[in-house]
Amino acid sequence: MDSSMENAIRFISGELVANPEADKNALIDEASRKYDLNPMQTEFLVNKYVLGQ
């Protein structure tokens, strides 16, 4: 896993700890832009946080 994905996961996880009711899709969108993720990486985050796979 590259550093941009690690940073994105840390960012999303930290936001969810601070606010468990946060909109996961919005956090993923923000992380994708902030860490310049490609579509495959973004899909991985959706599967991990939204679909729970």
Polypeptide structure, described:
There is one protein chain. Helix content is about 75%, strand content about 0%. The protein has helices at about 5-20, 25-35, 40-50. Helix 2 packs antiparallel against helix 3. With about 55 residues, it is mainly α.
The counted number of beta strands is 0
Helix content: over 70%
β content, as a range? under 5%
Strand-pairing-aware structural class: mainly alpha
Number of helices: 3
Q: How is the biggest beta sheet arranged? A: none
As for the number of domains, it is 1
Q: Overall 3D geometry? A: globular
Specify Rg, calculated over alpha carbons: 10 Å
Element pattern in H and E: HHH
What is the compact description of this entry?
The chain is mainly alpha-helical and 53 residues long. The protein has one domain (3-50). It has helices spanning 3-18, 24-34, 39-50.
List the helices and strands and how they pair.
Elements: H1 3-18, H2 24-34, H3 39-50
Helix pairs in contact: 1-2, 2-3
Looking at this protein, list some descriptive labels.
53 residues; mainly alpha; globular
